[in-house]
Specification:
The protein is built from 13 helices and 14 strands. By secondary structure, the protein is α+β, with helices and mostly antiparallel strands. It folds into 3 domains: about 170 residues, PAS domain (Beta-Lactamase, 2-Layer Sandwich); about 90 residues, Signal transduction histidine kinase, dimerisation/phosphotransfer (DHp) domain (Helix Hairpins), CATH 1.10.287.130; about 160 residues, 2-Layer Sandwich (Heat Shock Protein 90). The protein has a 5-stranded antiparallel sheet, sandwiched between helices. Strands 9-11-12-14-13 form a 5-stranded mixed sheet. α1 runs antiparallel to α2, α6 packs parallel to α12 and α8 packs across α10. It is rod-shaped. It starts with 6 loop residues before the first helix and ends with a helix. About 0% of the residues have low confidence.
Length: about 475
């Protein structure tokens, strides 16, 4: 991917482009308004001057003076007005029937007045426009006021002519100031946008680099951009949390592979060793039946391990939300107790049962929660002291059904209690007491309850070990 197609350049280009477009639109509006305002003010000023000249012309053409003297007086007056205002004035001489002005080169010149000017003047209105009058090289602003009369004679019309430079001097000053301001704003926008875009895209680039490391199997990479209180900061925290989860999952996967390799290796080594011994004739025919029995037991143990692993895989892929239905948990617990009667009796155990006679309706998967009760009761029976008493209880508490399984045996150390529900975990005492265990029974219990969004606790004090888990009551859900 080209670096100019990245998010950084997109943010930079869009932001700077919007600033530039705003300045252009603002500048165009500003220039239009200021130019119109200046032109209006200048024309109004020319109109006032032209009207003053027309009034002065009436006074210059007094009855006591000759026409020559009157013309000289008017010319002198126009020259003074031109010097003071920087404006050319033209006035119609009623005696010579030509325009008299401050520009002597215009004498005897045939001026071409716009048709619109004559139409305005003939109606006694003031004309404002732009024209060369057939004399000037460039069009100039012209204001013409109609003729004035003093009762004896009519003077005018009077034309005030201003050069374009004089008209646009202030407008150009405004243009220069605005141009400098626009350049300054653009420079600030460049710097601010570059800095902001860099801050916004750096965490994303870091995430991309970390993701590439994840693809290579390195889960130690993290995005070091903590402390931000915006969406990028939230994304960074979520990414790092995901990285922690991936790292933990990878660690669990490696531990799972190591554990299962160990669990599979033991029975497979035993089977292969005794089988080779029989085939090689090392084991006498009298002993073969004994070792074939061991091979058969290890094979069944291997089959149980594979079956339990398949159970775990299936449990993790279930969608229990669709399978949750109301059922009588007390009845399911009684069936479990009946099914385990032979195992319990064979160990000389008594059972203390506290299950309500009335139905206890809970919301969940009947088969899976029955499996939870079976695994816990089986585990309690395995590790209970010979001739002791098992306890199986059910009660309602806080909108939940609470199932309790308790046995009496060896005390489990506090540091080992959290490990009971891990895959393939077996304490030293359980290895000696249960050679056939695969260490997945309690892990399956925890997995099923997590799928139901329920919790299980384990305590062990003075030889009494208690497991307790909760299930949502169906009637409580209906009332809600």
């Amino acid at each position: 991917m080209s670096k100019f197609k990245g998010i950084y350049w997109r943010i930079f280009t869009v932001t700077v482009g919007m600033v530039a477009l705003t300045l252009v639109l603002l500048g165009a509006s500003f220039f239009s308004l200021t130019y119109s305002y200046i032109m209006t003010e200048k024309r109004s000023e020319l109109k006032d001057r032209a009207e003053i000249i027309a009034q002065m012309a009436l006074e210059a053409y007094g009855p006591a003076q000759s026409h020559l003297a009157q013309a000289e007086n008017l010319r002198s007056m126009l020259n003074v007005a031109e010097l003071m205002s920087g404006t050319d004035f033209l006035i119609w001489d009623p005696y010579k029937l030509e325009f008299m002005g401050t520009d002597t080169e215009m004498h005897n010149q045939e001026l071409k007045l716009p048709v619109a000017m004559w139409e305005k003047l003939s109606k006694g209105e003031v004309y404002m426009g732009v024209s060369t009058l057939g004399y000037y090289e460039k069009a100039r602003a012209i204001v013409a006021v109609p003729a004035r009369s003093n009762g004896l004679m009519e003077i005018g019309p009077v034309l005030a002519v201003a050069e374009p430079n004089a008209m646009t001097e202030m407008w150009r000053a405004f243009l220069g100031i605005f141009g400098m301001t626009a350049v300054t704003v653009l420079l600030i926008a460049f710097v601010a946008t570059a800095t902001t875009a860099m801050q916004q895209t750096k965490p994303i680039r870091d995430m991309a680099a970390a993701a590439r490391k994840f693809a290579e199997g390195n889960f130690d990479a993290r995005v070091m951009d903590a402390g931000r209180e915006d969406e990028i900061g939230e994304l960074t925290e979520s990414f790092n949390a995901m990285a922690d989860s991936l790292q933990k999952t990878e660690q669990q996967r490696r531990e799972f592979i190591a554990n299962i390799s160990h669990e599979l290796k033991t029975p497979m080594t035993t089977i292969a060793g005794y089988a080779d011994g029989i085939l090689d004739g090392v084991i006498s025919p009298e002993e073969q039946r004994q070792y074939l029995s061991i091979i058969s037991g290890e094979s069944r143990r291997l089959a149980r391990l594979v079956r339990r692993m398949l159970d775990v895989s299936q449990l993790q892929s279930l969608d229990l939300i669709k399978q949750k239905k109301p059922f009588d948990l007390s009845e399911s617990m009684r069936r479990v107790l009946v099914s385990m009667e032979k195992k319990i009796t064979s160990r000389g155990l008594d059972v203390d049962v506290e299950i309500p006679e009335d139905p206890v309706l809970v919301l969940g998967d009947n088969d899976l929660l029955t499996q939870v009760v079976y695994n816990l009761l089986e585990n309690a029976a395995k590790f209970a002291a010979q001739g002791s008493t098992l306890f199986l209880g059910l009660e309602k508490k806080g909108g939940k059904a609470v199932v309790t399984v308790r046995n009496t045996g060896q005390t489990i150390p506090p540091e080992e209690l959290p490990l009971l529900f891990e895959r393939f975990h077996k304490s030293d005492r359980s290895r000696s007491a249960d050679k056939d265990g695969v260490g997945l029974g309690l892990y399956i219990v925890r997995t099923i309850l997590e799928q139901h969004h329920e919790k299980i606790t384990a305590t062990s004090e003075d030889g009494v070990t208690t497991f307790a888990f909760t299930v949502q009551l169906a009637e409580e859900t209906g009332k809600a």
